[in-house]
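Support reply, case 0932

Customer input (verbatim):
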Amino acid sequence: MTQKTEKQKESRYAKAIKIQKLSKVFHSESGSTVSALHDINLTVNSGEFITVLGATGCGKTTLLNLIAGLDIPDEGYLDLNDNLKFGMNIAYVFQHYTLFPWRTTLNNVAFALEMRGISKQERKLEAVKLLSKVGLEGFENAYTHELSGGMRQRAAIAQALAMKPKLLLMDEPFGAVDDSTRADLQRMIIQLWHENQITIIFVTHNIDEAIILGDRVLVLSERPGKIVNEFDVNLPRPRNHLTPEFTEFFMKIRQTLSGQLD
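Our regenerated output:
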């Protein structure tokens, strides 16, 4: 895998997302409140791959939902450039795959194309290409229950890519697969990111994964989540977790996370 192209490097100077002093509070029916995020400040460049780490319940998913427009912030400012809009050019890959069990793999991907107004014949051709791109050629007519967990996530990623997104939000998409499958999926998503030059924000609990994937690793505090540190990962890809440089990043990030859990 090579470093990013000159076009990708140039794209980093364009701002895709700007967040200032963003906060989110949830109110229950009983009248209690939970402060999920507080005073989030973040700028994401176009074409950047951001990974987000933090303890369970620190607001990582809430941050993605706010960016997608699925939740509304209580305070602060969130600006999406490039005319970004959920369902049009923002795609979301959730923790649990969002495939229709009554549709074949091909038709699941084709559904996203149908939402874009693509003709039936073009949908089929494009869906076949996307499934091949994520390594699912030969499984076009399989149903969800016939696919492994890793294959389902590949199909979900193909479904997201069918929208031709400028921004891809990913909420722990590889958390439920074994280590070998996770490594395969990590290589795949890096290749797809490299080819499509899209902006990705990727939530994970896995420090290795955050370093392997991210241009930048953000660490959130315990609830209410706040960005307590960020690390620019300037290691060449593909990244080897056995190198001293990788280990140095790992130890610094783990130390930051440990400080949040004391």
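We compared this against your earlier run and they match. Two observations from our side: The chain has two domains: 6-89+165-261, 93-164. The two ends are 38 Å apart (CA to CA). Please reopen the case if you see a mismatch on your end.
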